[in-house]
Amino acid sequence: MLICQSSPVGPLGADASDGAISALVWGRAGTLTEGQLFNQLSDEIARYFGGELTEFSVPLAPRGSAFQLRFYEALCAIPYGETRTYGDLAKTLGVTAQAIGQACGANPIPVLIPCHRVLAANGLGGYSGRGGIEAKVALLRLEGAAGLLI
């Protein structure tokens, strides 16, 4: 069962491990198909896409290196409707902008870990979620950050 049948970025499912979301998947159901965690995530996703939720509280369990896990924490600290550049995050975390771009691309839980809020210094940059740049723009518009794109 999908957590979200329709959204600005298409149908969404999720995988879970040990009571936490481990991945967000596009266009199909994941391993999380029922139960309290499924209900919480479905509710939060619906409220987010409805413009009623600005911060997710569902437990997350992304996999990655120590750097990637620090990076995911930094992404979650970017407030709803705001953006940072790859360079901003690189300075904060003491790595290169290229490392930030690679970590964005490896994010297993896009939307919930908001890599769409990271932009290039002179443009959008990339987006690893299904739909690519169009999905990134849709998420930024939803959050009222699309004015930054002009």
From TrEMBL:
One of its GO terms (biological process) is methylation. Residues 31-62 form the Methylguanine DNA methyltransferase ribonuclease-like domain. It is found in: Cytoplasm. It catalyses: a 4-O-methyl-thymidine in DNA + L-cysteinyl-[protein] = a thymidine in DNA + S-methyl-L-cysteinyl-[protein]; a 6-O-methyl-2'-deoxyguanosine in DNA + L-cysteinyl-[protein] = S-methyl-L-cysteinyl-[protein] + a 2'-deoxyguanosine in DNA. Keywords: Cytoplasm, DNA damage, DNA repair, Methyltransferase, Transferase. Residues 66-145 form the Methylated-DNA-[protein]-cysteine S-methyltransferase DNA binding domain. GO terms for cellular component: cytoplasm. The active site is at C115 (nucleophile). The keyword Methyltransferase applies. InterPro entries: MethylDNA_cys_MeTrfase_AS, MethylDNA_cys_MeTrfase_DNA-bd, MethylDNA_cys_MeTrfase_DNAb, MethylG_MeTrfase_N, MGMT, MGMT_N_sf, WH-like_DNA-bd_sf. GO terms for molecular function: methylated-DNA-[protein]-cysteine S-methyltransferase activity. Its main location: cytoplasm. CDD domains: ATase. The keyword DNA damage applies. Its EC number is 2.1.1.63. SUPFAM superfamilies: Methylated DNA-protein cysteine methyltransferase domain, Methylated DNA-protein cysteine methyltransferase, C-terminal domain. Involved in the cellular defense against the biological effects of O6-methylguanine (O6-MeG) and O4-methylthymine (O4-MeT) in DNA. Repairs the methylated nucleobase in DNA by stoichiometrically transferring the methyl group to a cysteine residue in the enzyme. This is a suicide reaction: the enzyme is irreversibly inactivated. This enzyme catalyzes only one turnover and therefore is not strictly catalytic. According to one definition, an enzyme is a biocatalyst that acts repeatedly and over many reaction cycles. Belongs to the MGMT family. NCBIfam families: ogt (TIGR00589). This is Methylated-DNA--protein-cysteine methyltransferase.
